[in-house]
Fold this protein.
Amino acid sequence: MRSAGERLDTDQRSAFAASYLGWMMDAFDYFILVLVYKEIADDFGVSLDKMAYLTTVTLVMRPVGAYLFGIWADKIGRRTPLIVDVCLYSVIGFLCAFAPNYWVLFVLRLLYGIGMGGEWGLGAALSMEKVPAHRRGFFSGILQGGYAGGYLLASVAFLVVNSWLGLSWRYLFALSILPAFVSLIIRLNVRESEVWVNTKALLEKNKTSVRTVFLNPKVLRRFVFLVILMAAFNFLSHGTQDLYPTFLKSDENRGAGLDAATATWIAVIYNVGAIIGGFVLGWASDRIGRKGAILVGAVLTLPIIPIFAYSTTAGMLCLGSFLIQAATQGAWASVPAHLSEMSPNAIRGFYPGVTYQLGNVIAALNLPIQQHLSERWGYPMALSVTVAIAAVAVAVLTLVGAQATAVDFTEETEPVGV
């Protein structure tokens, strides 16, 4: 039995660090586009409505990447697909800096979505298979916090490159190659997952295929349930993030009317809240279970909504957004561990990633729904209604779902329930 304070060995640290950096840089590149929306539209002479397709196509292609790289990883192991994936999305992200027109950028963002979809599922699977089972929630929270870390990094880069130095949006995309390259170097030194090696040998011994495992009725039912759960989760996170920067800067529809620099600093601060929330509730999930930690985050979201949406000063908006990100991303903290623990060993390469990314595609409807509601009722009401419904949905679905907290992957057992 490992002690609670036992440190990770070199291979475990490398696997986790590479997965964290990979997911952080995925988020960094995704949110760069959100932050320089208008600048790109002006450069290419396209409407903001047309620009919206650049983020949509990335979201739509993420399940494709999760499936392709996940199936590959379940066949040949985690290590090589992850190395190929980080090379793919880092090069594509870098090439966005040199896009000569809208349609070239459109194709690049489409391809980027494939790389982004492959990174989270494989990185989460490898990390959760490497770290000690009794500390899986703690590391899950840190790993998921990489998304907020990428958003924070993108916000700071925007302030430095755009607001302070006055440089073009292209410099922001060019920057993304550096941390991704560091992630690649670390990943080259990571050994293959022992869980995958042992599972592969067992499948061959029993003459069982990955397809047979997936088509098991229990596994299929759980797959559908997890897609619905991830849709609710993504409506919750996108509901607090996608429209909020616009709300902070808008003078219309009861927007806060803040200047761009103030709004960006608020984004930096609320992402710090997201990282703290993920750290705390990820740690807590090792003690109260994945379901318990998710419920705490989802329920705590509800009383914070009025401060988050209806405050009228920069200070209170900053406080509300900090607290709501701590709660919602705290609920998210358990997701990498929870999906990995709910996945059969034989298909952990694609199962967590595909369920997550399919849920994310469904939640791509969030922004147009919120935008439509804001034009009728104003931003505060649009934010409040959508976030409250999503938080309740996450809580209810979590209550009826199963969990397999700290399950030993070397002695695979079946979770009870969906």
